[in-house]
Amino acid sequence: MKGHSTAPLVTVVISSYNHGPYIEDSIRSVLTQTYPFIELLVIDDGSSDDSVTRIRALQAEYGFDFRVQQNQGLTRTLNDALARAKGCYFAPFGSDDIMLPERIALQVEYMEGKPKVGICAGNIELMSADGRSYPASRQQLDVPFRRLDFDDLFLGRKPYTPAPTLLFRTEVLREVGGFDPEIRLEDVYIKLRITHAGYFIDALGVPLARYRKHETNTYKNLGFMTSSVLKIYEAYSAHPLYEEVRSDFINSMFLKSSNRDRSLAWKLLKQLPLRRWNGKTVRGIIRLVLPKRRR
């Protein structure tokens, strides 16, 4: 799809790795956006399932850019796509998620004329692996509009901005050097990087995508999440509240791992000085030392 002289082109990048059951829905949700000026780049990053066959069938029908490569990892793949992106805006999108039809149109309309907004985001609808929507009680569809600067993000002062909804200003993404190939948790890294450079993240108070929850979601790998976030935070160790932010995060991951990964939990507890203990620390310790009640 091509841009228009008066409408900005948006580059959407889908990097696929063994998401055969989901990849077609993800691609079709981009192809059916109400905003017509989209450059779709699809990359298969070394899948061993039937993803390539499925994508090629769609490519034959719609003619988008598709490349197959040996596994390089998401951040390297995104940097390669950024180097050849023609769009004024850049949207990395999960190969297991679904864009709502008005997503790109709403974000482009909002971003135009706001050069200090480096990223536009929104809310998400949660769905199960088979595409069924979660009950309303477990959704966060109505989180109101929020503007986040670096401290809002680093200190967790405002509701988070979900990765499946991020639309970047391409020139800003290039200005900060793109993604770090050594950091696989790309959304946390790049949001902090861009806001630290003085730009805002504006999150619209409407759902823009459907996020698919399944067994291979990154957030379920507690060890990976912990090591990645702590590595990202190290870049901001000069911040006056760095130690507090770091300890709060370790406490949260300690509590989560206390009933899911006991080995990780003990390692995290050793990293917490006594002065940084809080209610989460105590709850996690109780989980570790008291046997579960038999049902």
Automatic annotation (TrEMBL):
> InterPro entries per the record?
Glyco_trans_2-like, Glycosyltransf_2, Nucleotide-diphossugar_trans
Q: Quick check: keyword Transferase in the entry?
A: yes
Q: Which PANTHER family match?
A: GLYCOSYLTRANSFERASE, GLYCOSYLTRANSFERASE 2-LIKE DOMAIN-CONTAINING PROTEIN
Q: Which SUPFAM superfamilies match?
A: Nucleotide-diphospho-sugar transferases
Q: What is this protein called?
A: Glycosyl transferase
What is the superkingdom listed in this entry's lineage? Bacteria
Q: Give the molecular function GO annotations.
A: transferase activity
Q: Glycosyltransferase 2-like domain spans which residues? A: 11-173
- Keywords assigned: Transferase
